[in-house]
Design a protein that fits this description.
This protein is 51% helix and 9% strand. With 156 residues, it is mainly alpha-helical. The termini are far apart.
Length: 156
C-alpha cells in the first residue's frame, strides 16, 4: 500500500494519507510534468523533484506557493466563471465523496487530520434522502424488512 506523507505546520506533525493506483499514476505524471517544466523553463538540466521540494511551487521547487497566491488564483477564476469557489471546497468535496462511498466519519476524520469531529459532520452534512437510503440499505442487507419492537426485557 502506498502513502503520501503530509507535514502539518500548524501542529508541527506529520500524517500519512493512503493512495490508490489511480492517484499514484496521477502523481507520477505530475512529477514528470514538473521535471520537464523545471528543465525547460527554470533551466535546471536533469533535475528531478526531491522529497524536500514543494508539491506545488512558485518559480522553483524550493520556493513555496503561498496560500495568498492560491487564493488570488481562485478569486480570478471565481470572477471568470461567475461563481464563488475557494480551495477548501476540494476538502469538503473529498469528505462528502468519502461519506457517500460508505466511509464512516471517524475514518474521514483521520484522512483529513481533523481533531474536531464536528467539522467532519459539517463537511458531510447530507439531506434526509441520503439518511433514508442508508436505512433502507441496512434493512435490505440484514434481510430484516419489518420493524421489530424491542423485547420486553430490554424496555426501560
Amino acid at each position: 500500500r502506498e502513502v503520501i506523507v503530509f507535514g502539518d505546520p500548524k501542529n508541527n506533525t506529520y500524517y500519512f494519507f493512503p493512495i490508490d493506483n489511480r492517484l499514484k499514476e496521477f502523481f507520477h505524471s505530475y512529477f514528470q510534468f514538473c521535471n520537464t517544466y523545471i528543465q525547460n523553463h527554470i533551466k535546471k538540466e536533469n533535475y528531478c523533484l526531491q522529497p524536500t521540494d514543494y508539491l506545488f511551487f512558485a518559480k522553483s521547487p524550493s520556493i513555496k506557493l503561498w496560500e495568498k497566491t492560491v487564493r488570488r488564483y481562485f478569486s480570478r477564476l471565481s470572477n471568470q466563471i461567475g461563481n464563488r469557489i475557494h480551495p477548501h471546497m476540494f476538502r469538503k468535496y473529498f469528505a462528502q465523496q468519502c461519506y457517500l462511498s460508505g466511509i464512516n466519519i471517524y475514518q474521514i476524520q483521520g484522512l483529513l487530520n481533523h481533531h474536531d469531529l464536528k467539522m467532519i459532520q459539517i463537511y458531510t452534512k447530507q439531506d434526509q434522502s441520503h439518511l433514508r437510503d442508508a436505512l433502507n440499505k441496512a434493512f435490505v442487507r440484514s434481510n430484516n424488512l419489518t420493524y421489530q419492537p424491542y423485547p420486553s426485557n430490554l424496555r426501560g
